[in-house]
Write the structure tokens for this entry.
Amino acid sequence: MQLFDYMGKYGYEQLVMCSDPASGLKAVIAIHDTTLGPACGGTRIWPYATEDEALEDALRLGRAMTYKSATAGLSMGGGKGVIIADPNTQKTEALLRAYGRFVDTLGGRYLTTTDVGSTGRDLEFVSQETEHVVGLPLSLGGSGDTSVMTGLGVYMGIKACARETWGSDSLRGKTVAMQGFGKVAYNTAQHLLEEDAQLFVTDVYEGALEKARGLGVEVVSTEEIYDVPCDIFSPCALGGVLNSHTIPRLTCSIVAGGANNQLLTEADGEELHRRGILYAPDYVVNAGGIINVSAEVGMTYNPELAREKTERIYEIMERVIHTSKREEIPTFMAADRLAEDRLASVRGVRTMYRTG
Ligand code: NAD
């Protein structure tokens, strides 16, 4: 499909190609939608094999940010930046500052933060050139590590699902299989363990497993995680893990985790629904990170506000479940509908003011 056709079909506003041969910067910034506020989304630094891959990733991730912020009730739109570079060998101050100058040309239409391959330290360089950066380290006046709130939000989402499934949101004695034990999973696990849930954990990285063992958690292999008898399956590593190979193996009643893009295809979301497994849409329950950075936009970072808004993920998840039941549609569709309804209503008001 032609680029303008694609942008028109999915409602993209702007696509920016950034080139700075002196520093080696090749980047794409995709602004999907600014109806609710400035587009906000992290900058991914990744050695994409082709330019098309980078472009596709920026577009897909930017649109997902619109839905995430809209459902979370934030006054922010969706966008994403990607830099084509190996984060281990090609990140330089010159490259990051060149990128910062491009972000600055957008005049605040796009606010950037960290993502895969970029760190708070990288953001410091970007912020030398532009003020349109959020999620800087706490020591620099930013909101710091996002995974603390993301973990809290995932936990809130799990509790809302538990209430729907078992009539109580207590997780005492419930078994949770966590795929990946990185930053988000660790923070989610803290809450689950406080409630005396029983955890099974897997990871490909020995350091992560050691951390899990340190918490007294049972470790299983990366393949076993799909088969381990559990009440809740919590994907906290990669995307695409809910697919036609894995879904038939799941024994859980609930799927709720922090990973982005968990469903390989929409058909997989429908299959979970058909099997009576309650799926917590990923962008609904993993919104704690974006909620955290939103609590520094236009104000001094307010951690209480961030926490309070993240705890609301419980009610948002309840609304998703309610819509799914009322409309007889899978939860992933219900979440999309809530986001699209909010965007449409705000667009309607804006149009009314412009024409009226
Ligand atoms: P992380 O890198 O700290 O943790 C990911 C963990 O997954 C690592 O320990 C890694 O070894 C493990 N892993 C990778 N491949 C695996 C596999 N095949 N099987 C088992 N484990 C595997 O990252 P994170 O910040 O915890 O993010 C986890 C997920 O949550 C990602 O999908 C990320 O996009 C998403 N997410 C993160 C945040 C945030 O605030 N950090 C916010 C929203 C969404």
